[in-house]
Amino acid sequence: MLCSRALVSLALAILPLVASQDTLPSSWPHDYPGKPSGDFSPSWQNYFRVTDPLPNVTFPLGRSYAGNLPVNRDSPNNTLFFWGFEKSDGSLTSTSGRRRDEPWGIWLNGGPGSSSFYGFFFENGPISIGPDWKPTRNEYGWDKLADYFWIDQPVGVGHATATSDGYVADEDMIGRDFMEFLSNLVKVFPSLKTRPLHLTGESYAGTYIPYILKAYFQMPNPPVNIQNIVIGDGTITSGVVWNLLPTMQVIETFPQLIGYDPVVYKYFKEQSHLCGYDLNMTYPEDGTLPDIPIRQPRDRTIPWMAAARYRTRGLNLLQTLQKRYEESEVKGLHRRDRDLRRELWKRDLSERVNGTIDPWYGCFMWDMAMDYALNYTYPWNEVQYIDVYNLADVVFPPVEKDASVFLNDPATRKALHAPTSKDWALGIPHTFGPLGSADPSPVPITFFTELATNATAKNVGIILYTGNNDFLIPRLGTEIAIQNTTFGGIQGFTKKPSTPWYDDTGKFAGIIHQERGWKYALFYGTGHLVPAVVPRAAYRFVRDFILGNDPLGSVVQLPNGQSMVVGGQDPKLQGMALQALPDLYLGEGTTETTYIAPAATRAAWDSFILTETATTTQSPPRSSLRSSTTKRHHRALRTEAEAPTSTP
Q: What pTM did the predictor assign?
């Protein structure tokens, strides 16, 4: 049963479609009093400076600057929008050549078509907006660590503007537009041209950022000095790899999804093997990893599933889930009926576990896992809701996260020099032009080795991170991308990431690893929106591993030809999955209680999984780690199916 309430969980992941239209909307920047004439220069700083009071902001903020800058195409109305904050007074307005060693950062959200001001207000910006729409100071805002910009892009997204024929055609155009935007930004703030830039983002920014870096490397004289790219829970690989293939790892991380049921686990495990999804990566990788095609079910054709999620990014997962609900045979069942149906489903496994792929789901294992939880597993089957960003969060209705009231307030709009030709919205459904148009660009993994080669040559670091509770883009897709990329002359990491790290309070934060200019972090206790859920850990990560040079997790070559890892490798962290805490958070609009399965249920699971997997050891409190012994190689490359649309 998947009723319409369950769809709310993906309202941020996928943007809703609107009625078809012949002409896409046009928008343009607003000219506010005091706008300078002529080309961009430091004389524009006073124009862009945010001096008017912001509604209900009663706490001090650092100096900031905001407005639209063009991307230097035919029309000046094709623009990106920025809001940048100084770490200290004057740090943005210093002259060219000053503060040349001081870092600065940019944050991008994904979508495609999502505004970066979701990240600003609900993850890592200086202002947080609560469910009551009241702004408060974010004590873990990244503006405290460096001069930081949040940028709406591509053209037309959020407060960025676009002519009706100016929307981007592909990712290469996004990369070129971004470089042109930066060329204008550094004219206004000249010191940014030479200062080290850390380009950060999450989710579909995992597609944006590699193409931006590609454009950067293609320029003989780029406008900025990129030191690192940083991608969280990113869409780097094909949709099969970042969404379908990791399903078994998700179940081992979150056995709550299947009610800690060994029978159900074994069925999913066999299906994963039959679909070619089981693997055990080597460090370093010892060969080319082959593609993974989509495999449809035998007993039905799922054109909407294949098209909406893996072939055309313009269609959306919300539609997919609604169609799944409409086709559901159990959508009208009551709880007692569902309990009976669950047992019938398990009995039917005796006929299906015969070495064949599930006739109803094919290799759409992510969908099968979601359907199972929504039908049979408490508490998801009661609330009919799954937060694909963070499986531990079962609060329904979810916590309200809406920045539109603040950003569309006339006082805010005036203070930020924002457009008046349109209202700010979280996202748009026509990022790539006519409604329904897909992103036609190859997924980044297809050129990641080339990108890595240039990054090594030009001393640009690549930093990838992921949240352990992410159901939409689980950690395995990111780890496959790393092991399928050659950098520093070697394919993948040479050591399995397994060094623990901790936030500033001493709380276990996850795993950290560094090799040959690449860094990888797994965040424990959070999912897709890392800075929103574990702000202390994210703050420390930015301070010490992105902006700083903390050596923890670094592979160091020794004189005898051997190597060691700073901080050591914890055997407890070397499994394929890091089991999450058992806590599930419930409530209506806010967390009101916590559900944990009975101790006997969890103990029986621990006993079962100990014998079912090759290695099972105790992890952080109330958790266990496991890894599969099956070795199967896959290449995280584009298959016949493209990556589905993802998130902010």
A: 0.88
